[in-house]
Amino acid sequence: MSTVLYILLGIILLVILLGLIAPKSYAVSRSIIINKSQSEVFGYLKLLKNQDQWSPWGERDPNMKKTFTGTDGKVGFISAWESDHKQVGSGEQEITGVVENEEISTQLRFLKPFKSTSEAYMKVSESDNNSTEVIWGFSGRNKFPMSIMMLFMNMDKAVGKDFEQGLAKLKTILEK
């Protein structure tokens, strides 16, 4: 009986230790230069419905159910999705801030395959020769016990390639 108690105590201590050393937050971002003016790029990006044309997750499930609430491009607009595809899941994205020709801030609320909330943004700034740098990023907090999983998963690697793919497609669309 005492051996089982020691094993159980050891497992509990291990979980506590892993919870203490696990990363408490994450941040991922990628950027690209688009050969269009800052105002043209921003005008396109601030409309969340346009993400359907370049989002890597939209390609994974072109049949996902989408619903929209509010006025696109304005604070409070919500784009919601439902998908049975495990890499797409279900959730919603709400515009939480717009700084004209500079930044769109959104909150991502994932419901499936697991619940989480992240803050996301698209920033634009003037680059050389009438081109625009676009930075796409998001960040969030890892809550226990999910934080322990982050010891074995690299969020930058997991999502960074999707951001790169989406930005490349965005560039192609805008430079046509």
Structure description:
The chain has helices at residues 2-21, 38-45, 51-54, 56-60, 146-149, 155-174, and strands at residues 25-34, 65-69, 78-82, 90-99, 103-112, 116-126, 132-141. The protein is α+β, with helices and mostly antiparallel strands. The protein has a single domain (24-174), classed as 2-Layer Sandwich (Alpha-D-Glucose-1,6-Bisphosphate, Chain A, domain 4), CATH 3.30.530. A 7-stranded antiparallel beta sheet has the order 1-7-6-5-4-3-2. β3 (78-82) and β4 form a beta hairpin. The N and C termini lie far apart (72 Å). The mean pLDDT is 87.
Short structural summary:
This protein is an alpha+beta fold and 176 residues long. Helices cover 35% and strands 35% of the residues.
Defining traits:
START-like_dom_sf; 35% helix; 6 helices; 7-stranded antiparallel β-sheet; Polyketide cyclase; alpha+beta; 176 residues; single chain
**Structural domain tally:** 1
The fraction of residues assigned to DSSP E strands is 25-35%
Strand order of the largest sheet: 1-7-6-5-4-3-2
Please report the first level of CATH classification, the CATH class. Alpha Beta
Tell me about the largest β-sheet.
7 strands, antiparallel
Cα-based radius of gyration, to the nearest Å = 20 Å
- How far is it from the N-terminal to the C-terminal residue, by CA? 72 Å
- Shape label: elongated
Count of DSSP strands: 7
| Average pLDDT for all residues | 87
In CATH terms, the superfamily is START domain
Number of DSSP helical runs: 6
As a percent range, the share of helical residues equals: 25-40%
Give me the strand/helix succession.
Answer: HEHHHEEEEEEHH
CATH topology (level 3) name: Alpha-D-Glucose-1,6-Bisphosphate, Chain A, domain 4
Low-confidence stretches: none
Structural class comes to alpha+beta
CATH architectural category: 2-Layer Sandwich
